[in-house]
Structure formats: structure tokens, C-alpha cells
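Progress narrative, work stream C.
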Amino acid sequence: MMTSLPAIEYFQSNTGARIYRIPLEAFPSLITYCYVILDAGVPTLVDTGSGYGSCNDHLMYGLAALRENFGEPFDMKDIRRIIITHGHIDHFGGLAYMVEQTGAQVGIHELDRRVISAYEERIIVATKDLRIFLARAGVSEKLRHGLLELYGFAKKHVRSVNVDFSLGEYETVDGMQFIHTPGHCPGQVCIRLGDILLSADHVLAKITPHQSPESITHYTGLGHYLESLYKIARVEGIRIALGGHEQPVYDMYERIIAIRTSHQRKLDRVLDAIRNADAPCTISEVSKFIYPDLHSYDVLLALEEIGAHVEYLYQRGRLAVYNLDEVEREDNPALKYIVV
């Protein structure tokens, strides 16, 4: 039996491109959207879901529904091009399966290319960088071990896939304009089709996209993300933004302002937490103060989120490392911060 999912939605841009928004359950309780684009060159699939659990079945069901429920003269094997908006597993984990089903060519931005084409290598390197971050964040060895196990658990079903082409900055292909928006992910792109923007995870209706420090992965981090928000805010004439999660955004420019405001509030909370603490604080201590009731994988997400905001403040001279003698003396001690 199919999991209860939101309805497939149809949109048409002022350039004539027809866009179908297909919901998938990427992981339990996480709905991700992929998109089928017609009348913009060859039939194109944007993102493929996670490939985890029933996600591939949901995608097959959605593609079949274009013919059965919407009357499109379309078959899954008509897809000749698959574009991945960014290298996060809920958006590309099903890629190998879809390439097998369709034989389509695959495109992604060059900064995320090796996430797909050398997936096994990327997991090893990323896990090592995450281990170092958690130690510097002041996470206990026992908790570090548990968080790293959670990090790797849902990634074991994915395998490398050949990438056929890269998505260039502001390049236009068949009416699709690719805009590089790093921050949430190094190679994330938004795709403009006239007055519609496929905004990936860059602009979402309710949540602010997850941030992780650039110390874990280059071209992530809050600084890059805010710069990318300014870039998209300067793109005029967007009527609808269709993200990788949540509802369509019909007031994208106002939503961008709200996201900026949300991050400023979080920066202020981080500063207040460190300023009002009894002693210099680690990232782990700040995270526990701001998010006291989290469990399981949410603990890791909170540590990365707070880590990104601490990194942003440190890079801009608002914080200093207090325990420099310990940092100089030991290999990888926890960093303790003070407000300056």
C-alpha cells in the first residue's frame, strides 16, 4: 500500500514549460519533491529522491500518474535528462535506479559532481571531517560514536553514478537557467524557467534550510548561504518558487527577508548564550542550551546548525577562542569560545 502523500501538482511557466511536482517519502516523515519538466527540450527529471525504503516506488507511481491522471502522452522511458539540484541524499539517492530505468544523461554542478561520481570516496572523507568537527565542538567520545553511526546508516544503499554534464553558472539550456546557490550544499543550483524558480532547498516555505560549517565541507556555511540569498533576491520576475520540500512559495522575495531575519535572531541567541554562560562555551554546550530536548539524528543536525552560526561569528570577529594554550598543545581539543 502506498504511503499517504501530498497530491501531484501542475504548474506552467510564462515560457510555456510544463512542470509536474511529484511528492516522495525520502525518509520516514520527510517528504521530498522531484519535478518533471516538459516542453523545455527533452523530457527532464529534476531530482530523484533518496532511493530509501519505498521512495523509488513513489517516484514510479508519480511518473505513471502523469499519463493516467493528467493525460500526458508520457512514459518514464521518455526521460532523457536527469538534473540533480544538489548533492544531498534525499535528492539524489535514487539516481542510480532512475538511470537504470531510463538511460538518461545526468547533470549536476561541478562542486557536487564527485558526491555522485565518487560517492564511496566522498562518504569516507566527509565522515572524517565530521569526526574532527564533533571533537572540536566538545562532543563526548561516546556520543560522537553514536552520531557517526547515525550519519552513515541511511547512506549505505547508495552507489556512484557517472555524471555526463555540469551545470554552469547562469548557463541556459532549453530555457532552463542554472543559478549557483552554495551554502546549504556546495553545488546547489536553482533552476529558472521564466517566472518559475525551482528553488531546491535554497528557499523553502516554512523552515530555514539546514546549515553546516564550512570546516566540514567547503562552500557550505552561513556566509555562503546568505550571499546566495542575496543573489536570488536580485533575480526579478519570479512568480512561484518550487522547493525540494514544503509548499510552493508565492511570495519568494518576502520569504527571503524572513529567512535572513531568522538567521539574525539565531546569531543573536548564540551570542547571548556564550555571553551569559558561566565559563567559555563549546559548540556542544551552546547547542544544548538552545536545543535542550533533541534526540537521535536531530542532535547532529543541531550541532551542525549551531556550528555554522558560531563559525560565521568567529570569522567576522564577534567570537574568540579562549583556550589557545590547549589548542596549541593538543591535537584536536574542544574549542571554547568567548564574545569579544
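Work stream C, second folded protein:
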Amino acid sequence: MTYLAKPKLLSADAPRNALGYTRRDYEGAISTLCAGCGHDSISAAVVQACFDLDIEPHKVAKLSGIGCSSKTPDYFLGNSHGFNSVHGRMPSVLTGAALANRNLTYLGVSGDGDSASIGIGQFAHAMRRGVNMTYIVENNGVYGLTKGQFSATADKGSKSKKGVINSDSPIDLAALALQLGATYVARSFSGDKEQLIPLIKGALCHGGPAFIDVISPCVTFNNHSGSTKSYDYVREHNAAVNRVDVILPKAQIETSYPPGSLRRVVQHDGSILHLRKLGVDYDPSDRIGAINHLQERQALGEIVTGLLYVNSSVQDMHAHLNTVEKPLNQLGDAYLCPGSKALDALNALLR
């Protein structure tokens, strides 16, 4: 078996940030996702954002759940703290870690199945509690690890690889985040790095719950019926001695378009994404306006991208709970066990 590894040699003139780090210092392991997967573009955007912001990798905690998206933290910030939780439970694990140590930068990575289905309750409470974090959902509308069934974010009327039409209404995580109290809400497309990188930078610098919904098409489940490059077609016309799955590489889909405009992005299977980038006259401080704008454009079949809402005067969970400045995991016995007199005084207040 052959294992791929990144070369350790580095050019002497490689760009360095204010901390003296190169971009390589913010990378992780080599991706094992499908070639052309939009998730890898998101990982690259995270790497670039952290490099540009001069963030110390060892002061970042990255957490994830289960799914293709939840594998991606292994592909960036290899020298940071990391925790891969169970399916849908990343938000509560991140909340506990943030309570224990407020001095780290918290980055949660999830998927539409991980956050909009089994983990939707966890997602809701993380948003409303004001956890200081950047929460990225890599949204492809399918369950990529279990053969491409519709996820809860799949649009009503969309067609699956097998030709099935989705009859369920979609969950809009960006709109839900707005309603639940997130104070930084954005949506982007994995192929638009010019928009995505600044949005990630803004989220990492925000002092409260920052949520980014990134549309990230799945390349594997676009090998639709009728394609001579599909798995089924090759199996039917191949006299093979065994049955082997091979995921054929596809080129990443990228786009660039000005604010206020609509862009039609054709996918590998011929389907089309209608992306509308927010105009320069859009007011991101109007939460109700943001919710209305999302619903209006969704009715037209458009996916709104950009910074949807931001509250610059936000308070995070530690301010809500009035915790001490020192991280809780560094408090000694004198703080954690104040003695019987303090307990008696507390009990007296409850009588």
C-alpha cells in the first residue's frame, strides 16, 4: 500500500506572515475526498484565511461530527487541537470546550446531514447560546458517504442521481441561524474563493456565533443514468473478474462575478445553480430584512451569497454567564471548592 505525503522541502522565498509562518504551516494531511470535491476548496480557503490573519495554529480548536465534511478538518491546520465527535454532536462538544478554555479560537465544521438532520437540535442551541465560534456547514444536499440520498437541505423538486424527485421542503440553515440568534450569518459557494475567504476571515474575527453556509457540490453523485462514464454503465459493459469502485476525477467548479449580479453555474450533471451575490447597497445589520431577502430570493429559485447579517455589538456565551476571565480549565481548588461558608451563604439565598 502506498501512502502519499507532502514534501518537507520548502522554497526559501516562500511568503511568510507576520508570525513567520508559511502557508504550509496551516495545511494538514493530504485529502482523501473525491477529486474535484468542493470541500477541498473550503479547506484551502480556511488555510488562506488563517495565514492572512496571522492566527497561531496551536491556538485553534477544530471540531467536527460525521460525514464527508467532517473529515475535512484533517486537511487543514495540522498543528491545531482537534476533536472528531459522533454524528450531529459537534456543537455540544464545542460548547463544552469553549466554556473550559475561552482563549482558543473555535472552528466547527459540519455538513448538511450532520447539522440539518440528526444534529439540528444541537445546531439550534449552539446558535442561541452565543458560543464564540466559527461554524461552517459544507452543504451539498446529499449524504455523500451513503450513496447520495437527499439530505434535509435538498431543494424541493430536485432530482437525485437515480432520477427520484425530492418532495420534501428544504431546511435553510442560514435562515434558521438568523432566527436563532447567530450574530454573523453568511452564505457562499465553494468555487468562489474571492468571496469565501473574506467571509471566513470575518467569521474568525467575530466575537460571537458566526455561521457560514457554503454550497459545495458533490462530484461523485453526478454520474447520472445515461452517462458512459457512470459506474453502472461500465459494470454492464465490462467483463471483469471482480467488482471495484473507482471515483473518476472531475475538475473543480469555480466562478467569479460582481456584487448584485446573478450567475448561472452549470454542474457536472447539467444541473444549474443560480447564485445571487448581495449588492453593495444591501444592509447586513438588518436581521429581519435578511430573513425576508432570503425568502424572497428562495421563491425565485436563487441562492443568495455574501454576508447576510452581522451584529458588531455582540456578547458571547461567557458574557451571558458572567464567567471569570481566567479559563475554567485553569482554575484551582480555591476557586472550584470555596468551602462550607460559601456553600452556606449560597443556600441561604435560596431559602
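The radius of gyration is 22 Å. No further action is required on this item.
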